[in-house]
Amino acid sequence: MDMRDRFDPSELSENVLTRFFIGGTWRAPRNGEKLELISPVTEQTMLSVPAGSAADMADAVAAASEAFDKGPWPRMSPTERGAIIRKIGEAVAARHDLLARLWTAQVGATIGFTQMFTGLIPGYYSYYADLAESYPFEEVRPTLQGIARIVREPVGVCALVLPWNAPLILLSQKLAAGLLAGCTFVVKPSPETPLEALVLAECAEEAGLPAGVLNVVPADREAGDVLIRHPCIDKVSFTGSTEAGRHIGSVCAERVARCSLELGGKSASIICDDADLATALPALAPVAMPFSGQICFSQTRVLVSEKRHDEVLEAYRAIVDGMKLGDPWEADTAIGPLSMARQRDRVLSYIDKGRRDGAKLVRGGGNGGFDRGYFVEPTIFESVTPDMTIAREEIFGPVVSILRYRDEEHAIEIANNSLYGLSGTVFTADVERGEQIARRVRTGNVSVNGLQIAPNIPFGGFKQSGVGREGGPEGLAAFLEPKAIYLPHDISTVARP
After folding, report:
1. pLDDT in tens, 147-156
2. Angle between the 121-131 and 167-181 helix axes, to the nearest 10 degrees?
3. Residue 26 sits in which domain range?
């Protein structure tokens, strides 16, 4: 199979394939370095695109700084900014099919998955466009001697550093909120998935975003380090591994730069004894291994009571057995390849570690018989204890551990026994009981009887799952700095600017 049968590079503009978006123009790279995009299905090079250098990053930062200091964007009203943000979302919606296929081609996410999640992306732009009309960018509070006007101003020039697994939706979560705040941006996509951010730059150009507000330079991690260390970068917003997040956080701390970090997860799904397995397990299966488990909120620890363990295990295995592993372009494929060779090797090493530590392999563990492609079968372990490596570390692959609990208290204890705290689910016939359990699980997001994500709801984690939130008013606040202006007059005598 040739990826070009489903995605043809000629569908992309010459700008996207050969240039960077800097200062409102499409610029040729300063050197001839390339990023090789490898198909995870064929293991062959699909195409090559320019790789940004330190000099390209410096140009992008200079353009973003000029746009923030002298350009119109931070000085426009929220309503004016919201109108352009809405147009960006409309331009993204018009490219839905192309963007979904780009995602599948670059990292092997199934076409059904990419079609669905790409469809969610315009909602972030429309949500923040709507929020422009109601968010309290200014408020007045009384003081002992007069009043203070609280003005929420843009934090400044922001670096958005993106992962390879879900590049456009994660970029849009950050960008839509930051645009409403009035910030300007340098976007560094992952070297494995550079294309979506460049297509988004075309959307922004089409929507009339002023020059320099958005700058996009795909680059390797070395050039990315130059970006986060740049003295003109006021804030870094990063999504990716906890290891990389520690590094970025330390660099920002040295400069006292603002940072938001959305990092890893090891989320637990608690199956209560009263849960209806006929509805709970089909709802759990897709979110336990979404995108072959390469999503931070994957519910990779499934907690079941000793009483129902065998019943749950048998039913869950039957569902997973029915999840097709194969060609991500086929509509009935549930599990595609992993995104790259190093990720496949990482996952297989964790599977070997699980075996060595004494966990029982229930199904999977191999490559499914494929002679090429980065495939790993959906894998289930039982007899897993909370101290095992596969129960503690983020594997980022289609590997689920089944853990037993004695009672509700024990289930909550196991769920909280983690360095991470990003997501979680509770399945129960009693929704009120589910909410009470959810309140005690120390994660940033917990869903009862399913898993939900929405643009108006904050997303982020506790503990080593990160710092800060994206989505909702909280996501906007992350790009704002509050300023207090004290005035020695009654509010009635002070005109609003």
Report:
1. 999 999 999 9
2. 10
3. 3-263+465-482
What is the rounded average pLDDT of the residues 248-267? 97
Rounded CA gap, 313 and 298, in Å? 18
If asked whether residues 342 and 252 sit together in one domain, one would say no
Tokens of 175: 């960008």
Chain segment 147-205, per-residue pLDDT in tens: 999 999 999 999 999 999 999 999 999 999 999 999 999 999 999 999 999 999 999 99
253 and 366 share one domain: no
Torsion of CA 416, 418, 422, 426, to 10 degrees: -40
Amino acid identity for residue 362 in this structure: V
User: How would residue 2 be classed by pLDDT, with cut points 50, 70 and 90?
Assistant: very low
Q: Could you tell me if 245 and 148 lie in one domain? A: yes
Instruction: Using the CB atoms, write b or e for 210-228: b if 16+ within 10 Å.
Output: bbbbbbbbbbeeebbbbbb
Contacts of 87 (CB under 8 A, 6+ apart): 206, 207, 208
Domain check: are 310 and 429 in the same one?
A: yes
- Tell me the pairing of strands 235-239 and 379-382: unpaired
255 in the same domain as 119: yes
pTM of the model: 0.95
Segment 280-308, tens digit of pLDDT? 999 999 899 999 999 999 999 999 999 99
What pairs with residue 45 in β-bridges? Answer: 38
Residues 177 and 291 in one domain: no
Q: Which residues are known catalytic residues? A: 262, 296
Tell me, yes or no, whether 291 and 354 share the same domain. Answer: yes
Q: Is 321 found in the same domain as 432?
A: yes
